[in-house]
Design goal:
homodimer; mainly alpha; MgtE N-terminal fold; CBS-domain; Tetracycline Repressor, domain 2; about 5% strand
């Protein structure tokens, strides 16, 4: 079906241009689309058109789509909505998702929205807002049922049935003692098939729980690895505060991976889908890093300036500059990317710095020996043995240096509280460029005797 | 607690060296550890030591830990186990996880393991094995309950209670008609609080389902965005074949993100935790790309060879080579990383190639204008106006070229069936190096009149 307005094809259109008949056609098309396709459409178009699409959807589907979008895009859409619509979408979100959205909104709008909630919803939202950004508390749902370990299976099932609406999930249920301390966790599945006369304490399992003050990204990663639906969030004295659910953990990990991906490519994360991001935001996300890297690259100009006399003597050396700095950069990036990912997944920790260094020196030496041998043979054949020797030795030294630095830099970045992804890849290249040139000319002067 | 053997500190040890008393100490320490910490320990050590740790755990915890590891690491551990142990771990896995593990094992061992299963488990495992790698079928659980739309809520609940053991999940239940076609989905939560006399068709919702032949990575991404616990997998005639659960979708996305991360850093994915990977595997994962990139970089040597006369005339030009190729590479990588991630998330599709090109040309021009202005001023001050003009103009041209190429390359890669992450970043740098040099010397010859 082809629509004049191009609303579903990413062309220019606005609500006013949309004739009534056509709006009805688009609405019908949207209603027939699988929900994931509708989400994609909203993510692949401008904010104005995204808002129009949401408005044309039926109420429940529109809430579902809005829910699935990231908080940055949600905030932009909120700006394009009318007040009454905003309140609907906002009230429908879970407390933790609501807080993520509030973080993205200007303070005045956030306050107004918070005031619009009914007293109970407002209270739970403010509770979540009370935790530090980046902590588990900020992402938990405080809407949790109090189930005591002296209850029978039948009592628990009854209680859950009558209070299901008050809990974000009823599939994994924390069990507490009378002091509200978490004693175990039981799945609805297990409750459901258990002998109803048993005490719940007899069928519950040892809880996997997390402190509300813990780092959310680290927690989300290991939580997902355990394939759990939800896990209790507790305070220092093991008192139940809320639950963390798998869907929030997923959102966190996806966002963290997108951020790492952007930063390891040398730009700031967009926080929203590419096609819905205005050009000036794209430029803004990239220009700072480009400038910083270009300014650091002035270092390479200075290094070459120092060796200008050597260059004049043997211009042939200039020919290999991009190849050698490129190979150094590539080797460094390989190590940095591998270790950054391993740090994110928790496979490597700060205390492993010397194990990583030892491994990367060995890997770098082996890579350097292989590439150096190839480089020696080829360069010797074309430019003679002395130049070949310089190239071979330089590749050996540069690869070893680059792999070690690339492996260790992300760990140092993490240790000083910086994002390993920022501090590693983009800087590795520049660092390897400058250091590689010094190594290159030092070896050249030695071997060629200039 | 400090253990002589260093089993928990990553030092050398093997089972034979471990004295009985100490084994008991390690076992006690492990039992007291949170499960996620035990998983980390296994992932951060060698295969031999990982197998020892698993053996020292209590049975149920050991199965839980094994379950949480990736299939590559599972396969390596299987090699270090005794036969009887292997069968225990293998039988405990879900059919889809079992198939992922089988894929990593040598054919003879895989066959033997498959034969060891009881007939019913063997049958479901073979069913999953029948689907193509990379398809949804390969990851679904065929263990699904047949619930018909003419059943009442009470009947469904009864059936689920009595057959829970036969289903991977009972939290999201597909409802079929008598021809086994999926008509809707109902959550256990909804069933649980619904009026038991209602027909299940009255409370079920429109199903979000997926074809068994669909691409698993794409499916997993949008499935996770919808925050669902499970979704029905169907054939072309909408017949129920199985369910896809959130934990499998998570594993797939994590693995895909790790692969993208490795490839965009220019190495092959390790498929297992960094510290448990032997050095020679690390070298193997990197050497091929390094060689390919180094050989392509010979292009830059040739380009410079062509312009050697110009270089001899004005050696000052050599000073800026790393800065200019570096900036081109950075700009290209920024665009490539952003678009690769957007492709993975489904925010950009193949058909968007011209929208992306248009956006990146504009972004590249703006970045180039800003950097070019800075470059012109600085280079003019130090090396005079003519050199400044060459640097400024080159930066403008190189940034525009790099951003457009970087934005479009991942889409072209995907269109020809290659991995956007491989084909984009590592190649972008080399391509930008060579093209950037041509642009540089062309502008230099023009402006400086040499």
């Amino acid at each position: 079906m082809r629509l004049k307005s191009g609303l579903l094809r990413g062309e220019v259109c606005d609500m006013k241009e949309l004739e009534l008949g056509e709006a009805r056609d688009v609405a019908a098309t949207l209603e027939a689309m699988p929900i994931q396709e509708v989400i994609d459409q909203v993510e692949r178009t401008s904010i104005t058109k995204g808002a129009v699409l949401l408005r044309l959807l039926s109420k429940d589907r529109s809430l579902l789509v809005f829910d699935a979008l990231g908080p940055r895009l949600q905030a932009d859409l909120i700006g394009a909505f009318q007040d009454a619509e905003v309140l609907d979408y906002f009230a429908d979100l879970d407390p933790d998702d609501r807080v993520s959205l509030l973080d993205e909104l200007p303070a005045s709008i956030a306050d107004e929205l918070l005031r619009s909630l009914d007293p109970q919803e407002k209270q739970v939202t403010e509770l979540v807002l009370g935790y530090a950004k980046g902590s588990v508390g900020r992402w938990m749902s405080p809407q949790v049922l109090l189930l005591f370990d002296d209850m029978s299976v039948a009592e628990v099932l009854d209680f859950v049935r009558n209070h299901a609406a008050e809990a974000e999930t009823i599939y994994a249920l924390p069990i507490v003692n009378r002091a509200r301390q978490v004693m175990g966790v039981v799945s609805l599945r297990k409750l459901f098939i258990a002998d109803p006369t048993l005490k719940v304490s007899e069928i519950m399992v040892r809880p996997v729980s997390v402190l509300a003050s813990a780092d959310i990204e680290e927690t989300a990663r290991w939580f997902l690895q355990l394939d759990l639906v939800a896990m209790p969030v507790v305070d220092e004295s093991n008192m139940l505060l809320g639950v963390l659910t798998f869907d929030d953990a997923q959102d966190i990990v996806e966002q963290a991976d997108s951020e790492d991906s952007a930063r390891s490519g040398g730009s700031e994360p967009l926080q929203q889908p590419y096609l819905s991001t205005p050009i000036r935001k794209l430029v803004k996300s990239r220009i700072v890093w480009l400038l910083v890297l270009a300014v650091s690259a002035i270092l390479t100009v200075q290094v070459l300036d120092i060796f200008e006399a050597t260059l004049v003597e043997a211009v042939v050396l200039a020919l290999f500059i991009p190849l050698l700095t490129g190979t150094g950069g590539n080797t460094g990036n390989q190590a940095a990317t591998t270790v950054t990912r391993a740090l994110a997944l928790g496979d490597v920790r700060k205390s492993d710095v010397f194990r990583v260094l030892g491994r990367e020196i060995r890997v770098g030496l082996m890579l350097g020996a292989l590439l150096g041998a190839v480089g020696f043979v080829i360069a010797s054949l074309v430019y003679g043995m002395p130049v070949g020797t310089v190239i071979g030795l330089t590749l050996l030294a540069v690869c070893t240096m680059a792999a070690s630095v690339g492996g260790v830099m992300p760990i140092i970045a993490k240790a000083i509280g910086a994002d390993p992804a920022v501090f590693s890849n983009p800087f590795i290249s520049t660092f390897c460029d400058a250091t590689g040139l010094i190594i290159y000319f030092a070896i050249a002067k030695l071997v060629l005797g200039i």
